[in-house]
């Protein structure tokens, strides 16, 4: 169950960083109460909350949604799964985060009429969008750009961006997220005891 994986992974990430709930709340912008509820399995986070956690802890998104095996200071997922948050965009991990390439790839699903807008990611994060079914629009630098089957965009994701499907048909697209080296959780003690990263 996705919520259980998030609960386990969040607790492990926070413990590894040596942070209290209050410190983690300050780091991520997610309230102490919400963090506690997620870790106790009392609340299911939204995709926006997951991105806050990923940005605050400077981890890839898959660090919170996959079965993770800790290896040499990085996180390696044991398997991938489809994830769907109520009222939000659906996605399936195609390639989980790979510290060698600094990227992760998802197959995203937009329902007819669905709009998904995302807050800026960490400085230097870049996204690739490649449409594999249907048609959609991508919000880049404040402008909605049409993107049909076979079309692709690469854009800076450290600014507001989004995706929408104004058609009557479902749309699928590959979304690859490229993280700069400075945003990777590469060592076992990088975040230990620190609450200064945002």
From TrEMBL:
The keyword Cytoplasm does not apply. Keywords: DNA-binding, Transcription, Transcription regulation. Residues 10-64 form the HTH cro/C1-type domain. SMART domains: HTH_XRE. GO terms for cellular component: cytosol. GO terms for molecular function: DNA binding; DNA-binding transcription factor activity. It holds the Pfam family HTH_3. InterPro entries: Cro/C1-type_HTH, Cupin_2, Lambda_DNA-bd_dom_sf, RmlC-like_jellyroll, RmlC_Cupin_sf, TransReg_Diox_bact_type. CDD domains: cupin_XRE_C (cd02209), HTH_XRE (cd00093). This is Transcriptional regulator, XRE family with cupin sensor. The keyword DNA-binding applies.
């Amino acid at each position: 169950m996705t919520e259980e994986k998030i609960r386990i992974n969040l607790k492990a990430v926070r413990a590894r960083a040596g942070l209290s709930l209050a410190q983690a709340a300050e780091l991520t912008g997610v309230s102490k109460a919400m963090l506690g509820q997620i870790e106790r399995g009392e609340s299911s986070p939204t995709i926006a909350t997951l991105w806050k956690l990923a940005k605050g802890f400077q981890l890839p998104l898959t660090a919170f949604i996959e079965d993770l095996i800790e290896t040499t200071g990085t996180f390696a997922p044991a398997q991938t799964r489809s994830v769907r948050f109520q009222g939000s965009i659906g996605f399936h991990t195609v390639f989980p985060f790979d510290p060698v390439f600094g990227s992760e790839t998802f197959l995203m699903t937009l329902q007819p009429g669905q709009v998904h807008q995302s807050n800026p990611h960490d400085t230097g994060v870049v996204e690739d969008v490649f449409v594999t079914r249907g048609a959609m629009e991508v919000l880049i630098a404040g402008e909605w750009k049409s993107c049909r089957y076979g079309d692709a965009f690469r854009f800076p994701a450290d600014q507001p961006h989004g995706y929408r499907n104004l058609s009557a048909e479902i749309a699928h697209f590959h979304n690859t997220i490229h993280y700069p080296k400075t945003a990777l959780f590469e060592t076992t003690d990088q975040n230990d005891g620190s609450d200064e990263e945002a």
